[in-house]
Amino acid sequence: MSKQEEEKGMQRKVDGMSCNIINELRLEKKLCDVVIMVDGTEFHVHKNILCGCSPYFMVLFTKGWYPPDKLSWV
């Protein structure tokens, strides 16, 4: 079985406590490394979390589609 096939079959699991800690950090704007703006509302977020949840953000942040020093997205 190829690595890609193995990854497709793997389920991502994060316990509730870890999710709560990550969310607390986000709400306190700690360790956030990018800001996404939607209709004038700012969301301070963690790129690694976005990459783990979305193929779009994975490509955006890992394939050089944005300047590395850019911190805000509208």
From TrEMBL:
InterPro entries: BTB/POZ_dom, SKP1/BTB/POZ_sf, ZnFinger_BTB_dom_contain. Pfam families: BTB. GO terms for molecular function: DNA-binding transcription factor activity, RNA polymerase II-specific; RNA polymerase II cis-regulatory region sequence-specific DNA binding. Residues 32-74 form the BTB domain. Signal peptide: none annotated. This is Kelch-like protein 10. The gene is LOC128630864.
